[in-house]
Specification:
Layout: H1 3-10, H2 23-34, H3 36-57, H4 65-76, H5 86-96, H6 104-111
Helix pairs in contact: 1-2, 2-3
Length: 112
């Protein structure tokens, strides 16, 4: 693994350590320990993430927001989705049946 691929992986590293058991994260973290430049980049990246998390913690959410969101989702699910143009329905059905190949994640990481 090179530094560019490690950065790509580490950009999505969760601060609670939930990714530590993933072999890609473990390899990228090990590289950050051995490579000073990558380690310093990771420290800066983690500090930015922590600052963003602190900023989010300061936001006061309106009372009842959770319930409002859940009600909006429930209201949206009350009836079938209508497609005025038959082609819209065909496209939505086709897109809904698409699945990413199982090996896509590894291929993307290798390509990085």
């Amino acid at each position: 693994m090179d530094n560019e691929r490690a950065r790509f992986i580490l950009r999505s590293f969760r601060p609670d350590g939930a990714d530590a058991d993933d072999r890609d994260f473990a390899e990228a973290l090990e590289l950050a320990v051995r490579d000073r430049e990558l380690g310093e980049w990771l420290a800066r990246e983690r500090e930015l993430d922590a600052g963003f998390a602190r900023a989010l913690e300061r936001i006061e959410l309106p009372a009842g927001l959770r319930e409002d969101i859940l009600c909006a989702f429930a209201a949206a699910e009350d009836g079938p989705v209508r497609f005025d143009d038959p082609l819209d329905g065909s496209m939505a059905g086709a897109l809904g049946s698409l699945r990413a190949p199982a090996e896509l994640r590894e291929r993307v990481l290798v390509a990085m």
